[in-house]
Design a protein that fits this description.
Layout lengths: L65 E4 L2 E4 L52 E2 L4 E5 L2 E5 L5 E3 L4 E3 L6 E5 L8 E5 L3 E7 L4 E7 L4 E7 L3 E5 L4 E6 L2 E6 L2 E6 L7 E3 L2 E4 L5 E8 L5 H4 L5 E13 L4 E12 L7 E5 L1 H4 L10 E2 L6 E6 L1 E7 L15 H12 L13 H10 L1 H7 L3 H18 L7 E5 L4 E5 L12 H18 L6 H16 L34 E2 L2 H17 L3 H23 L17 E3 L2 E3 L8 H6 L16 H15 L7 H9 L3 H11 L11 H14 L1 E2 L10 E6 L2 E7 L6 E4 L5 E4 L4 E5 L1
Antiparallel strand pairs: 1-2, 3-4, 4-5, 5-8, 6-7, 7-30, 8-13, 9-10, 10-11, 11-12, 12-19, 13-18, 14-15, 15-16, 16-19, 17-18, 20-21, 21-25, 22-24, 23-24, 26-27, 28-29, 29-30, 31-32, 32-33, 33-36, 34-35
Length: 786
Amino acid sequence: MHRPWGRTSPRQASSEASAHRRGRPSRPALLAAGAALLLTGAVTPALTGPGTPSTAATTAAAGAANVPVGAGSYTDTLPAGASGPSDLSGAPVSPKVTDDYEGAAPTNEWWSSLIFQRYPENPHGENLFAHPASYHPHEGGLEMGYPDTPSLVAEGLKYEHPHAADLSLGAVGLDSPDTRVADSGDWTVTAEWQGGGPTLRVTIGQGLPFAYARTSGGDAEVSFESPPDVWHEDGSVVGASVDGRHYALFAPSGSPWTRSGDTFTAATGDDGHYSVAVLPSPEDLDAFAPYAHSFVTGSVVDYEYDEAGSTLTSTYRVETEAVEGDRTGTLMALYPHQWDNAVTDVSGLAYASPRGEMRVAEGGSFTTELTTNGVLPSLPTADGVDQDRMRQLIDKVLADDELFPEPGDTYWDGKAMGRLAQLVPIADSIGHTEARDELLGLVRDRLEDWLTAGDARQFHYDAEWGTMLGYPDSFGAAQELNDHDFHYGYIVSAAAVVARYDREWAAEDAWGGMVRLLIRDVAATDPDDPMFPRLRSFSPYAGHGWASGHAGFAAGNNQESSSEGMHFAAATTLFGSLTGDEEIRDLGVYLHTTQASTVSRYWQNGGGGTFPEGYEHDVVGMVWGDGGDYRIWWDGGAEEHYGINYLPITAGSLYLGHDPEHAGAVYQSLVDRLGREPEVWRDIHWAHRALSDGDDALRMFEEQWQTYEPEAGSSKPHTYQWVSTLAEAGAVDASVTADTAHYAVFDNSGTRTYTAFNPGTAPVTVTFSDGASLEVPAGEQAVTGG
């Protein structure tokens, strides 16, 4: 038995989880916009955004506890005995926003400690890793640093670029009791400090070398932590270095900086502004100066999926305002997964970061293009599989007395549903229709139980935070807003399996409306969605999600199970296609394709360049804002440190084998570390091994299938089908694409196998980029070739 997962727990024992604590408690925050829509009793019009309920069934009478959504429902009152978002003491916590903040409260961001006060004694927030700069809020404003040098800690288990303050942005006389969020974009945030007379607002963002400050009631103030080496001083522009890190201070023209000790001030007036930039070198001042007064005011990613061309085009755009002069645009530092796939020119300017070298693009936007490899609902079953054994294995699963945990929670119940749902198409593929229908019934009934308010399992909408909370919960999903994509991905995935066999069940006025609400909770795309923040569980600039709702750690936010984030993305793709909703399908493709470009690179050092010299591990179990850690949230062994970023194994996991040589090297590194083949979660590792050597994976299964214990979300028939299919079909061939969202190509010693799924209601011809084609009947999966 493996240990339960601690995830983003409140423990503070390790250095990266310790928090700076200072200041006074925050004032109560206002309710998030849109909360009243659920409580007024008025009929809610069709809401915009992915998964939007299209019927009036989303409304409730005033004071009603249960809100109907098609055949399902959620509760707008907290279930008896349940806790919602809370601080470390267990007290309810409200979003820490300004009076003019608009929209539902974002969580699971790199900056979420600004809006979610996890520690009662710290009303400001924890370290913020925007890359290339890092920040820390305090009563006098915002510390700024540039963590350009990695260090190894925890006996070499973690590498980190820790925050160290070089200077602090403020306003003369500022003494704020708290730090609040005034505005936010897809990767930017504006924080506000108010107290002692002045008000300060600073906008910062991932990839932004500038911090943009606006002041009122007090002059600009920048204080260095130690005596700076001033190498440029010309009125409103100062260039200075601290310990080899270089900064430029830009005040308005006609407002020169005045130095007193290590502090610079400038008379900026009531509607003042200034900016501070971290520079690659002093010689780069002239490249930054033209953009000093072009203030970033927002950020958004736009994506377009070209199904016929198997291409995802993403444009990362910042909104800017010329507060002086007429220059717009800015400089943006791109992560490796961005500049490696950019179709926009990238300059020679570069920064260090925990993800490797960041390269700078100039202007108001940049664009990347990625190949979209398909997402299948299931693997085809190999001709050579022993169907009698497969039937027996499926029947043995169904004979289990405890198919679902009791009382069940959003995570473990989800894994149980996923375990059974994965067997539905397998049973169907071997003609075991009785088992198929029984499995479908079990999954459907459990889903309906969760998607109906008032029972032992239910969802509650928290209007203040703009989120769906499932009860019972686990791993802080309700109290800390952790892991919603991990938990809800299992529900969406199970719903997609049911939709494959019963489209009416997934209709908007049946159970599909509730499923769409969960998708919107995790990844709403409409910035004006009245119920949910945009892309809660996905960080567009980082290219992956963040697990912690509050990010209350000195190391920033973290992401452990990247594979469960990918699982949600694959499930969303399939649910969108099976319900005829291209907007949801395209969202899933965007999430899946973008994350696939980061997982191998940042969790496994794929291609090199991410892990620093001297780091002696081939993988990290967790990516942190300040680096990467081989350790995970519980005291697991090596098999779990590797496997936490593989599970659950589904047909949406084929991205782990897009580079079979790399997958093989990662598997071998685990074997070398253990000095043996895996023994914990061995089915997860056999499935991963099959992506580089299907014959070897099948050998291990055949030798041990009668004696091993499956991982909680897996089963023997599913693992048998997976390894036997890949042993026969070969490795994933990602060089061949197709004009559909649902396909895969395999290569076994030069012989290709092609498979595609048709979620539509009419037959289609799928064409592959190497000239092969495949006729796929409506609602079916077809195979041709080897």
